[in-house]
Structure prediction request, 386 residues.
Amino acid sequence: MDNTAATAATTPLPLTKGSLAREFWFQQAPLIGGALLLGVLAAYWQHGFIPGAERAFPVAEVRVPVWHLIWMGVWTGYTMAVVGEAAGIFALPYSMSILQFVNASVTPSTQVLTFLNPFGALLGFRRSGQWNLKFAAAVCAGGVAGGLIGPFLRSSLLAAADVFHFAVGIALAIAGIHLCYAAFHGTARRPPADPYRQKVTIGARVHGLRIRVSFGEQNWDLNMVALFGVGAGVGMFASALGVGGGFLLVPIFASLYALPMYVLVAATIPYVIVLSAVGLLTYNFILPAFGAAPIAPEWAWGFFAAAGGIFGSWAASKTQMYVPEHFLKLMLGGVTGVVGALYVVDFFHPLPFRL
Amino acid sequence: MNLWWKVVPYLPFIVLFMAVLVAVYHVKFYW
Prediction:
């Protein structure tokens, strides 16, 4: 995997102050405005009023100002996108432990955020050429299977609050360990040619059950059945918790297949969107079709957080190359790991404070 | 513009610090 080969056939993409402003106003601002509008409409449709600091969110059963939800999206989207993760793995424990959204609806509500949040990044990666639907297809199909099964686990095995906290703790610990590991072992995050200025191409050719993914002169030969299996396994766990699955899929792709970050995003970003969409569908419609009670999301909660998340992850994509990534990964990994460990310890020995 | 380039590397830490402040505010007034 020679990274120097990754320079690829490139086309310059000028990145100026004007192009940044254009990109924000024409591409990001409509998405952010749309998410805010959906939040307002969803609040009126679901409750007949806009909940917030004065009147509690009826499904979440907590009072929280709308600006705080938008801010949660901004900071989780920004800090996690800077280190190549998605907002859900931070927004979920923050919603549970700080905002005290503790009932089962926290899961689909966070999935509204994980569904909308990656669209900004998807557009950005499509613009830079890090996009191939053939490559993404098998793992996304696995995500569909996982997104159909995961919500059933949430409504049965993970229905009890303490068991759910324990499962979230395990997920946080995995994410924390991955971030700390990545801090010490620099992963190939971007090709030497600056991807923010150069258009690149990711190719994919299917031969029977195998797919050959190419980037410049680099090639990876992948088994599509294995990709499907990984997508389904990660999807089950992630949709049962209410996160996008990137926290598991990225380290698996990076370690198992030695795929660099600038290639694997072509599969992981569409995966998170597909998994979240199927998870939401299952929580709302497929659970009741099989006799289980539906788990309704607090739609407005998710949309308001997503509006902030879209801005946060876009801002991260523009500033990522200027921040001390390794120190930040270590810090975030440490915090995530400690919070995860506290959740796990709390399951076996209840702690003297509220988590 | 110069100030912007000086602040950008510290931006994630500033954002995290603000997140902690807002979380403390929430715990104090809404719990």
